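Put briefly, the fold is written as integer tokens. The lines below illustrate.
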Amino acid sequence: MEGVRLFDVFPGAHWTLPAVGTEEQLPPLPGVRTVRIASSDRYGTGVFLVRPDGYVGWAGTGARDLPRYAHRVGPTVGQGL
């Protein structure tokens, strides 16, 4: 997605999954807002799961291990921390 500002992606109490500079297939995670962002010198590339409180709960170069983390933590619609 061209021109996405991270500030606009995170408002509200929800889990967010930014995929930065990758077209990798992302696993479906109920209640998680997914956004694709073009790579840039500022952000580099990777996949990040950001908790409702704004902290990065999981990060990787790809999404291979993300389902294991999500299953353990359980981000779902309306779930906080």
